[in-house]
Design brief:
Layout (H helix, E strand, L loop, with lengths): L1 H22 L7 E6 L8 E7 L7 E6 L6 H4 L1 E4 L1 E7 L2 E11 L7 E7 L8 E4 L7 E6 L6 H15 L6 E4 L9 H11 L2 H4 L2 E4 L5 E3 L5 E3 L2 H5 L15 E5 L2 E5 L2 H6 L1 H16 L5 E5 L14 H13 L4 E4 L5 E4 L7 E4 L17 E3 L4 E7 L3 E8 L4 E8 L2
Parallel strand pairs: 9-10, 10-11, 15-16, 16-17, 17-19
Antiparallel strand pairs: 1-2, 2-6, 3-4, 3-7, 5-6, 7-8, 9-21, 12-13, 14-15, 18-19, 18-20, 21-22, 22-23
Length: 398
């Protein structure tokens, strides 16, 4: 009888606990929160997130960080936009996007997003300064084992450089286009990092698939997760763009389309020429997935070398940040600038058998890179995941 009463009491407690959990359902809260920029980094900040629950409202609140708890009283409320994620014609989830505007340069802000009732945690971001030094992180392909193994790369990079202003992702963030579970792992692997440090991504071949007509289609998750500048060619603005962050012009090219679509390649060629010719930035950096020079003898990206390399050299591009080959390499191909780099952050590895252009090379090693920019110099450092320095160099700007 005593045992029967004990079991009954435990059952009642469990029932009460379950009821309490349901009234505080974490599935109602926003997730996959990602900072990007769609406009000037010194005065704006864009945020994207997945909307959970039945509400389809997208609301953001932002306030200058004053280290006080009463954030709601002085926060500015901004109404965002909601868009459905459609995978193969079926709506999978709704996503919210909001852009905070009219911000002060070089200022720490705190923000949250939600539907007006169910909110995320308050997070922080910092707007770009007008001038001065800063650092950012560059990661090669993530692609595989995102939650279990790539997570070490981005978390160690953040641990070493917590004040990095943004993180460059050089394509192949996931392995299979349209696969929501892989994007879920990518966000879980990064944890809260992209809620505080904006992403600057370029797509790779694994973000693409061909439709029934044979047309290349960018994974629909891309524009849900990344709210990027609309300054690229009219039909490629989801992935071809430039971003001016203080004295650096970051330029994203869509190398998958360059490799497989001659019209898209021609449009990007002309667009890149115009963007570099008009640049007033001290440092010009290009990020794209496929490397101009490969680390494998059986890979030869001729179009990049013949049509885009001359543009890089003519307009003084300083760095070209790449991925795709799942190795590490650095070289200048006989020129002073640009320095061509490729790296891998995820666990998928290839061999390196081309020594024709590389000054430094490595294989079977997960890496992350920290780039520090000052008024006159750029410092590049590549690190193993144990924090050991793998490669470094510096560039001077007269």
């Amino acid at each position: 009888m005593i045992l029967k009463n004990l079991i009954l009491s435990l059952s009642l407690c469990c029932a009460l606990y379950t009821g309490t959990a349901q009234t505080n359902d974490h599935s109602l809260y926003p997730d996959r929160i990602t900072l990007t920029w769609s406009d000037q980094p010194s005065t704006t900040q864009s945020v994207s997130w997945r909307i959970n629950g039945s509400s389809i409202k997208a609301v953001g609140q932002v306030v200058e960080e004053q280290s006080i708890p009463d954030l709601e009283k002085s926060a500015q409320t901004v109404i965002g936009v909601t868009s459905p994620l459609k995978i193969e014609g079926q709506t999978a989830d709704n996503y919210g996007q909001v852009s905070f505007e009219g911000l002060k340069p070089g200022t720490l802000y705190t923000y949250r997003v939600g539907d007006g009732t169910n909110w995320s945690a308050w997070n922080q971001f910092r707007t770009a300064d007008v001038k001065g030094g800063f650092s950012f992180i560059y990661l090669g392909d993530a692609q595989n084992d995102l939650r279990s193994k790539w997570s070490r790369s981005i978390r160690k990079a953040f641990q070493q450089e917590p004040n990095a202003r943004f993180i460059v992702h050089a394509g192949d963030l996931i392995n299979r286009s349209n696969n929501d579970s892989e994007w879920s792992e990518w966000h879980e692997g990064a944890g809260f990092i992209h809620q505080m440090i904006p992403a600057v991504p370029t797509p790779g071949n694994h973000e693409y698939r061909r439709d029934s007509m044979g047309q290349l289609i960018l994974d629909p998750h891309w524009k849900m997760h990344f709210h990027l500048p609309k300054n690229g060619p009219a039909d490629m603005q989801d992935a071809v763009y430039y971003l001016d962050y203080q004295d650096v012009r970051m330029i994203s090219l869509n190398s998958q389309l360059i490799m497989l679509d001659s019209i898209a390649a021609q449009k990007q060629e002309q667009w890149l020429t115009d963007v570099l010719a008009s640049s007033k930035a001290k440092w010009n950096i290009v990020v794209m997935h496929h490397p101009v020079y490969s680390t494998a003898k059986n890979r030869d990206n001729t179009i990049l070398r013949e049509r885009f390399r001359p543009i890089f050299e003519k307009y003084g591009v300083d760095l070209v940040l790449q991925g795709h080959d799942h190795t590490y390499a650095r070289g200048t191909a006989g020129q002073v600038r640009p320095v061509y780099l490729l790296s891998v952050a995820g666990p998928k590895m290839y061999g390196s058998d081309s020594e024709r252009w590389m000054e430094v090379s490595g294989a079977q090693t997960q890496l992350y890179q920290v780039i520090r920019v000052t008024d006159e110099k750029l410092y590049f450092s590549s690190y193993k995941l144990n924090g050991q320095l793998f490669d470094s160099f510096e560039l001077s700007k007269k």
